[in-house]
Amino acid sequence: MRKLKVYEPKEIKTVYISGRITGIPLSEAKRNFEEAEALLLEKGYIPVNPMKNNHDPDTKGWIDHMLEDIGGLMRCDGIFMLNNWQQSKGARIEHYIAVEMDITVITKL
C-alpha cells in the first residue's frame, strides 16, 4: 500500500488570482479579478492580479499572456481560483501547475 505524502501547512502571503478571461467581455473579466483582489487584500493577503499584465488580446497572443501569468504564479505562495476557473483552459493549466508545484489552492475565502 502506498503511503500518502504529508504536507506541513505553510504561511501564505502572496496569492495569484486565476479565472476565466478569454470568452467573456474584457470588462467583466477585469471586474471579476478586481473584486477578488479587493477581497484578498481585505483578508490580509498580497494579491497578484494577472489582469494588470495587459490582457488586451490585440497586444499579445494567448501563449505570451500565459507565459507571463505562469511566471507570476510561480512567485506566489497560493492561488485563488475564481468561480469560473474550470471554464478556462488557462486557469485549468494554472491550477494543474499549482497542484504539481505544491502551491496552496484556495477556492473560497
What does the model show?
The chain is an alpha/beta fold and 109 residues long. It has a single domain, classed as Rossmann fold (3-Layer(aba) Sandwich). 39% of the residues lie in helices and 14% in strands. It contains 3 helices and 4 strands. It has a 4-stranded parallel beta sheet. α2 runs parallel beside α3. The longest helix has 17 residues.
- Under the CATH scheme, the architecture is 3-Layer(aba) Sandwich
Poorly predicted ranges: none
Structural domains: how many: 1
With strands numbered from the N-terminus, the spatial order across the biggest sheet is 2-1-3-4
Shape descriptor: globular
Kindly report the average pLDDT value.
89
Radius of gyration: 14 Å
Number of H- or I-type helical stretches: 3
**Approximately how much beta-strand content do the residues carry?**
5-15%
Q: What is the CATH third-level topology name?
A: Rossmann fold
Give the total of beta strands: 4
Q: Termini separation (Å)? A: 35 Å
Give the topology string: H per helix, E per strand.
EHEHEHE
Structural class category: alpha/beta
Helicity, in percent? 25-40%
> Main β-sheet: number of strands, strand sense, barrel status?
4 strands, parallel
Can you identify the CATH class? Answer: Alpha Beta
Pfam families: DUF4406
